[in-house]
């Protein structure tokens, strides 16, 4: 049994949101979050929690279905968090504040963080966050 594509699931959840809004009549469609957006927000919260911890130096996502590596107080720690390809891409979109990823290789600086990475479905996407 194959899993439905990401595009299909996105359209499906948007359709559910539209129908729900029509039935309830109280909600604007824009305010209803899809399942994917909720999952992305939870991932972002987890990443932000790790980054805000005292002694944080770096966080590496070495690829899909591989555990995140955290550098904290000059020690490397293997987390229990692993991301699939779509989750990595959603996180990258949130880092870049965009809905579409045009660049396959990126490096941005936000406040005291440098975020770099590569988007590749064949080799597996990955990213690195370094606190400066």
Your description of this structure?
The protein has 132 residues and is α+β, with helices and mostly antiparallel strands. It has a domain at 50-131: 2-Layer Sandwich (Beta-Lactamase). The chain is 37% helix and 29% strand. It has 3 helices and 6 strands; from the N terminus they run H-H-E-E-E-H-E-E-E. The protein has helices spanning 6-24, 35-52, 85-96, and strands at residues 56-61, 67-72, 75-82, 105-110, 113-118, 126-131. Strands 3-2-1-6-5-4 form a 6-stranded antiparallel sheet, covered by helices on one side. A hairpin with a 5-residue loop joins strand 1 (56-61) and strand 2. Helix 2 (35-52) crosses helix 3 (85-96). The longest helix is centred in the first third of the chain and has 19 residues, at 6-24. It is globular and about 45 Å long. It starts with 5 loop residues before the first helix and ends with a strand. Residues 26-35 have low confidence and may be disordered.
Give the biggest beta sheet.
6 strands, antiparallel
- Please, how many helices? 3
Strands in their spatial order, largest beta sheet: 3-2-1-6-5-4
The fold-level CATH name of the domain at 50-131 is: Beta-Lactamase
Overall helicity? 25-40%
The CATH class name of the domain at 50-131 reads: Alpha Beta
Radius of gyration, rounded?
17 Å
Q: What is the H/E order?
A: HHEEEHEEE
CATH architecture of the domain at 50-131: 2-Layer Sandwich
User: Roughly what is the average pLDDT, rounded to an integer?
Assistant: 78
Q: What is the molecular shape?
A: globular
* Distance separating the two termini: 46 Å
Q: Determine the strand fraction and express it as a percent band.
A: 25-35%
How does the helix and strand content classify structurally?
alpha+beta
Beta strand count:
6
């Amino acid at each position: 049994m194959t899993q439905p594509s990401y595009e299909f699931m996105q359209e499906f959840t948007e359709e559910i949101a539209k129908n729900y809004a029509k039935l309830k009549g109280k909600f604007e469609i824009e305010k209803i979050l899809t399942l994917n957006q909720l999952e992305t927000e939870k991932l972002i919260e987890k990443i932000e929690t790790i980054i805000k911890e005292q002694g944080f130096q770096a966080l590496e996502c070495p690829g899909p279905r591989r555990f995140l590596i955290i550098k904290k107080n000059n020690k490397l720690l293997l987390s229990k968090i692993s991301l699939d390809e779509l989750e990595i891409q959603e996180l990258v979109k949130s880092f870049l504040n965009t809905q579409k990823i045009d660049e396959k290789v990126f490096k941005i600086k936000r406040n005291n963080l440098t975020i770099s990475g590569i988007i590749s479905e064949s080799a597996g996407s990955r990213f690195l966050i370094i606190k400066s």
